[in-house]
Amino acid sequence: MSAVEKGQLITANRLRDGIAVFLTTSGNWSESIDEAVLAVEPEAAAALEQRAREDERKTIVTGSYLVDAERRDGRVRAAHIRERMRALGPTVRTDLGKQAEGKGAFFAAPEGE
Amino acid sequence: MYRYDEFDNQFVRERTRQFRDQADRRLRGDLTEDEFRPLRLMNGLYLQLHAYMLRVAIPYGTLSSRQMRRLALIAERWDKGYGHFTTRQNIQFNWIKLEDTADILDALADVEMHAIQTSGNCIRNVTTDHWAGAAADEIADPRPVGELLRQWSSLHPEFSYLPRKFKIAVTGAPNDRAAVKVHDIGLRLHRNEAGETGWEVIVGGGLGRTPMVGVTVRGFLPQHELIGYLEAIMRVYNLYGRRDNKYKARIKILVHEIGHDKFREEVEAEYASRPHPSTEVEERELKRIAAYFAPPAFESLPRWSPAFEEAKLSHPAFARWAKNNLGPHRVDGYAIVNISLKPEGGIPGDATAEQMRIMADLAERYSFDELRVSHAQNIVLPHVRKGDLFAIWQALEDTGLAAANYGLAGDIIACPGLDYCALATARSIPIAQSIARRFANSAKQDEIGRIKINISGCINACGHHHVGHIGILGLDKKGEEFYQITLGGSSAESASIGTILGPGFAGHEVADAIETILDTYLKHREPGEEFLGTYRRLGAKPFKEALYATA
Amino acid sequence: MQLLRNGAVVSDGWIDVSADGEVPTAGDVVLSASRLLADWPGLSERTGRLGVRLANTDRPEMFQALLPRLSLIVLPFPAFNDGRAYSIARKLREMGYAGELRATGNVLPDQMQFMLQVGFNSFEIGDRFPIEMWSRASRQMSLAYQRGLFRRDAESEIWTERHTDAEAWLEQPHAG
């Protein structure tokens, strides 16, 4: 039985191409939600926000915000369907977007597990 | 079709250059997102759920083959090989990069197109009847006025920061296919007893959170007064429309809150107080534009085409398509072809680059080089000889475009919904697909007959659910999708807003619910009565009983 | 706050008494609309020039009689996307107002050309953007479809150009 870790991740859109991205432990922005760093404590979430604001100033990303999510078995699932859709790509075009590129977490599927 | 002259060309080129500069400033960090957002929106560039989305204007829904091919090129070169035709006769590309956008706008300018004012709180793309210039019931082609209004509204310095977006629709026919009563301003052409034409000016219709049918503020406005009168309406709205709450900022709320009479009084006072110059230039400009819309060189043909009749007899699938997908043309021997972009299991309004090219080829060969986009997200070949219909149908069959469901249960209007849209609260497309699959049986679809099923993925109502005979609205209930059903809406000349039937449904229950509603209609209808007629005659009761009694 | 007029930063000689301050007996003063209307008879005796600071809920019609005596009207943009002042400005110009028309508030370079076109001719600008950006951004479109706009050199109206031999609409002075 694996532990479930609940917390918040930070997401944004990459400025140049608009692709939805997630801040990782290494401080980079990944297209895969599974690589997102999860802040469990409020202080950690505030630190993520500050880091994202810096990257907005550096014109790397735009429109960052925190998202409630959980990690289980190394997979990340956002709490709200809208965020799961962002992490997954369009459900009606599985042949393109994050799903086709192997970056869309199956765990994100709107129907649940 | 209208062609740009040197002024139109220069205008669009300057505008593209301006956007290139703005995008560069944003990428360099000289503009913040808050400063840049309104600038990119004024050029149709949204930031959606997965990427940027570019909405390209198709003024009054008219395209040439060359323009359609350019849309195909954009889909291939800068997107993922497809585009989405919208309920406002525009096209959206879903996977656009900010750094490519100015190049795309240049590519559009090459074929006399742009993305100006496809978003923002300004006057949006002017829409019209997708059968304009071809329809048998038409008083006059509304597109010259559409073009006049496109020019007048483009970068209008006074009306670019309105309280909210502003949509104008124009129809030249008594049968309203342009939904003019549910636009901020609807213009409907009338002919009086003396044989003169004039505009009925309808204001304050709209969908969204507070759906309303517009009210007539002028019954018969002479053409030469149109621009001046519209300026007066726009000024009253710009000055007195609400800005404290974006959900109450559309002109319909102003008209409703101060009352029709007071609103009309304000507009008339404003109109009377404005300097009244000669309208000679406007009249000459309209005449200049109208020359571009002269009817094509139709052949003199018999009404009856033996080749067409024989093909129908020998090919039942063609006969069914011809029965459902053709519209009556005003010239004998011609038909209007409605290409359904609603193949079973497909995404309403989506077309691949290859399909766009095929449609462009067909238009070039068979329809005087013209295509139209309808607000129901279909494509129209407006002027086709009946003798060519079979060849067209065969070509459409080969590329998955021959769905014979125009105006039927499978011809569903659906916004992109939560699969693409950042504002959506629920998905629309999978719901449309599940309903289309349910009615895939052509005999049942034909038996049900004309029906408009419209789906929106949020309260903003881009899928026009309020005016669907059956409307479906996707909402968010504690982070999960659920769907509300309305009945009895219509965007036609006897426009009405649908009424919510009862408690909502989960996504997988919607197709069952729609089937129950349509079975109830089949049970109660009188001979020849369409769904809307039955609903209006009986009210919601039998439908409610059928849907909720068993629960 | 810098004042941009005719493309150059200039000093502002106006004394703002739009709040409750004492109106000096001499000098150019800007008043609130309510004070202007209330104190009008006395004010009209003064030697200095008069200006008014309007709210964008004020109706321009109220000031029709005073327009010939006013030398400055200040219109606010509480937010760049609050476009009421565009209509008020254009209406004041249509009513014959010929003095200085000043934009204040959230005024941005990319909106400045629209402001010039409806008749504004001075702008209170912050230091967020360099002056070059203001002048460049305000000259990106040389053409407009609408008629009766204020135009600077090298700017023209498409419909008027297309039909040059037609009767003129309303000749607008160049805003400079």
Spans of chain C of 5+ residues with little confidence (pLDDT < 50)? none
Q: Would you list the SSEs of chain C in sequence order as H and E?
A: EEEEHHEEHEHEHEEH
Structural class of chain C: alpha/beta
**Which descriptor suits the 3D outline of chain A?**
globular
Distance between the termini of chain A: 16 Å
**Counting H and I runs of at least 4 residues, what is the number of helices of chain C?**
6
- Uncertain residue segments of chain A: 107-113
What is the CATH class of chain C? Alpha Beta
Task: Tell me the helix content of chain C.
Answer: 10-25%
Map the helices and strands.
The complex is a heterotrimer of chains A (113), B (551) and C (176).
Chain A: E1 4-14, E2 20-23, E3 29-30, H1 42-57, E4 61-72, E5 75-78, H2 81-88, H3 97-100
Antiparallel strand pairs in A: 1-2, 1-4, 2-3, 4-5
Chain B: H1 6-28, H2 33-41, E1 45-47, E2 52-56, E3 62-64, H3 65-78, E4 82-85, E5 91-96, H4 98-110, E6 127-128, H5 143-153, E7 168-171, E8 185-191, E9 197-203, E10 215-221, H6 226-240, H7 251-258, H8 260-273, H9 280-292, H10 306-314, H11 316-325, E11 326-328, E12 334-339, E13 350-352, H12 353-366, E14 370-373, E15 379-385, H13 389-398, E16 413-414, H14 429-438, H15 442-448, E17 453-456, E18 470-477, E19 480-487, E20 499-500, H16 510-524, H17 531-538, H18 541-548
Parallel strand pairs in B: 6-7, 7-8, 16-17, 17-18
Antiparallel strand pairs in B: 1-2, 2-5, 3-14, 4-5, 4-13, 8-9, 9-10, 11-12, 12-15, 14-15, 18-19, 19-20
Helix pairs in contact in B: 1-2, 1-4, 3-4, 3-12, 5-9, 6-8, 7-8, 10-11, 14-16, 16-18
Chain C: E1 2-5, E2 8-10, E3 15-16, E4 29-32, H1 33-38, H2 40-43, E5 50-53, E6 70-77, H3 84-94, E7 100-105, H4 112-117, E8 122-125, H5 131-137, E9 143-144, E10 156-157, H6 158-162
Parallel strand pairs in C: 3-4, 4-5, 5-6, 6-7, 7-8, 9-10
Antiparallel strand pairs in C: 1-2, 1-8
Short description:
The complex is a heterotrimer of chains A (113), B (551) and C (176). Chain B has 551 residues and is α+β, with helices and mostly antiparallel strands.
What report would you give on this structure?
The complex is a heterotrimer of chains A (113), B (551) and C (176). By secondary structure, chain A is an alpha+beta fold. Chain A has helices at residues 42-57, 81-88, 97-100, and strands at residues 4-14, 20-23, 29-30, 61-72, 75-78. Chain A has one domain. Chain A starts with a strand and ends in a 13-residue tail after the last helix. Residues 107-113 of chain A have low confidence and may be disordered. In chain B, a hairpin with a 5-residue loop joins β14 and β15 (379-385). In chain B, α1 (6-28) packs antiparallel against α4 (98-110). Chain B is globular, with a radius of gyration of 23 Å. Chain C is of the alpha/beta class and 176 residues long. Chain C has one domain: TIM Barrel (Alpha-Beta Barrel). Chain C has helices at residues 33-38, 40-43, 84-94, 112-117, 131-137, 158-162, and strands at residues 2-5, 8-10, 15-16, 29-32, 50-53, 70-77, 100-105, 122-125, 143-144, 156-157. The longest helix of chain C is centred in the middle third of the chain and has 11 residues, at 84-94. The radius of gyration of chain C is 17 Å and the shape is globular. Chains in contact: A-B, B-C.
